[in-house]
Amino acid sequence: MTFIFWLCFVLLVQVYILYPQTLRLLTLLKPTPPSAPLPRGKYVSIIIAAYNEQSVIEKKILNTLALDYPRDKIEILIGDDGSSDGTAEIVKRYSSQVRLLKNEKNEGKAAMLNKLCEAAKGEIFLFSDANTMLEGSALKNLIAEFTSEKIGCVCGQLVLKDESDFSLSKTESLYWKRESRLKALESGFGAVMGSNGALYAIRSELYTKLPTHKTIMDDFYISAKILMKNYACVFCEKALAFENTSASKFGEFKRKVRIGRANFNFLLDFLPMLNPLRPIRAYIFISHKLLRWLSPFLLLAIFSCSIFLMQTHIFYKIFFAVELLFVIAALLGVRVCNYFLSMNFALFLGFCKSFFKEKSGAWKRVERL
Predict the structure, then answer these.
(1) Predicted confidence (pLDDT) per residue in 44-69, tens digit
(2) How far is CA 272 from CA 223, 225, 279, 319, 364, in A?
(3) Whether the Cβ atoms of residue 61 and residue 91 lie closer than 8 Å to each other
(4) Among residues 326, 336, 54, 366, which one has the least CA distance to residue 178?
(5) What distance in Å separates the CA atoms of residue 12 and residue 6, rounded to the nearest whole number?
(6) How far is CA 255 from the centre of its chain?
């Protein structure tokens, strides 16, 4: 029982404290790579899957058309996945500048992305969400990172604009700032562990057709498959994408449950990243993703063990009291405590849901402010 307690405790410390510090140390030990020439201008397919995005789709089109990149080297493809609002009608107003692909019924984001990528003609596929607005130089900065044929994916930096009044949303923006710092460190090893659907670009020939039979996190799946093909995935801090936080506390929580479910749905597909012949990539995957997905079970194990160990030493009595205070603080709405427990509870629910059959991989839109 003591061994289980300390093993789980050390693994949790690794995820949230030791991992960023060890990455910084490894970065110091890593030799600085020689500078590479800037890549020539590439033909880019900008791919946007949309479902009931009437409120933002026109703004997204105008934002995309305003990007600082040669217009003759861009094609814009928008997929309307059976929207029940006026999304498709708005896109049709820009038919001279935007290609619309429309599904008559909602088949899911993965199916829509497969359809869009099959129709796209670019050397580079740039993926972005309909509710994401890009800084004018974002595309140019992303393309500038393709300095080597071994760079297969470049992800931009998501900046969440917090206009809500609930703690889960406020802490979400802080979480993404931490994630961006981690991605910057991982980028030095060409192993950024997961892009964000808000803004990332890949070499078109490296696109892996997405499974459509159950919930999937398309951005992580696509970039993970590129890593497994032994191409690099890097981070571009200067390529900025902006989103608002979720309009609903429960909507944000449900989104995290869906993310958790998707992670466990395809966990076996990601296990090749544990390849010991690529130790840095394996270390990054274990620390940034695998152990984080398992955090709810580590927490449950620590809590259970501390109950049984309380009679053996005063340390465990104090530790158990701290755990209870943490839970009480979370229930009372203390921001960091509430976010930490909510995130892990959502992961746990996602794990449970992954054992149940799904009707389809269709997406469920979360309203943004």
Answers:
(1) 999 999 999 999 999 999 999 999 99
(2) 14, 10, 12, 37, 30
(3) yes
(4) 336
(5) 10
(6) 12
Whole-prediction pTM: 0.90
| Residue 142 in domain | yes
Handedness of CA 219, 221, 222, 226 (dihedral sign): positive
The letter for the amino acid at 102 is K
**CA separation (Å) from 305 to 295, 344, 353?**
15, 18, 26
**Host H or E run for residue 300:** helix 295-309
Q: What is the CATH number of the domain that holds 162?
A: 3.90.550.10
Domain-embedded: residue 13: no
**pLDDT tens-digit map of 181-235:** 999 999 999 999 988 889 999 999 999 999 988 889 999 999 999 999 999 999 9
Tell me phi and psi for residue 38, to 5 degrees: -65, 140
| Residue 159 located in a structural domain | yes
Cβ proximity of 355 and 267 under 8 Å:
no
Q: Which domain holds residue 213?
A: 44-247
The pLDDT score that the predictor gives to residue 248 is: 62
Give the chain's domain count. Answer: 1
Is 176 inside any structural domain?
yes
Please report the beta strands in the chain, taking only residues with DSSP state E, as ranges in sequence order. 44-50, 74-81, 99-103, 124-127, 133-134, 151-161, 200-203, 232-244
Q: Give one word for 201, left, alpha or beta, with left for phi > 0 and alpha for psi -120 to 50.
A: beta
